[in-house]
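== Item description ==
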Amino acid sequence: MIDYAEDIIAFGPEAEREIEELEREGALPKELDRFRDHYLKFLLAAPERKNILLDLLNTMLRLMGYEGLTDIEPMDRELSPRFGGGRGMRLDYLGRTASGRIVNLEFQKDSGGDFIKRALYCSGTIMHRQLLGGDPYGKICQTVFIGILNSTLFRRENNWYWDFVLKHPKSGRVLTDDLLLMFVEMNKLKRALSELRAKARRGGLDRADLATRLALWGAYVTNEGVDIVAEAMAKDEIFSEVMEAEKDYWGESRNRFIQMMQEKHERDALWELENARKKGLAVGLAEGLAEGRAEGLSEGLAEGRAEGLSEGRAEGEAKGKTEVALNLVRSKVDIDTIAKWTGLSVDEIKSL
């Protein structure tokens, strides 16, 4: 069996035999999904590959106009908030910079499930746990939340990144930047793929500026432009190391098995969600029909009463006119005068 711990996946003998069998059958995944948390932890959270993480962070920060990081060290994971099952909010890296800032780097496949509120909760919990030892509030360090998304958070905007601090809504005066929230929509960087390929053909990617470099990162983690990274950036020290790390990771059948299990988990979750949606629709339809029948019956009775009253009134008026006309006829009043007084037609009066 497989024991899923928070950070480590341990395999028992049964799982090892299953992996070997799947490997022989060629049933394990053939393509690496680079945005999965297990791979990103392998690539970015390992101390020996800290330079890769710094390259990604500094590329983003400098493009946003912020000072780059000279160093980052992993922190005690007990400082981070816990999430049930650990699958929804993917806490991939929590570190402290040389200047004392705490950086919480998260990768998220989608932006649903109140992602912004969860980001606030996560950052607030990290700030709270800085004072668990009884220190004064002044000891709280700047907490930087960086959410890297493979989806669109702000759908009507073209910006690929957003940074927020607490400020006055009218004057723009900043209250504090102790909590800095950053959201990077990597899928928007895919728009630059055609331009990147054109640069690659001209041999210009080995001298990439920051914008091009981030577009390359976007192409890589979203699985859309790995060919560019693998071929055109072969001379780049960081991306060469990225490709070597990927080769080491994907060469392990265990890691391919983990991706297969994660994909199955996601399919099952989607299936359950779809079933729940269909069940909800069926229940809603049944309740709607029942309510509609009751409402229709009520409306029908009311409509029947109103219609009967209207028809009765009309019938009474017609009968009254007929009786008056008949009496006038018996009194030898001429037909034209009767028609004028009763509103009946000449033919109707003749028929009496």
Observations:
- The first strand starts at residue 2 and ends at 4.
- Residues 31-251 form one domain.
- Residues 253-330 form the longest helix (78 residues).
- The chain has a mean pLDDT of 77.
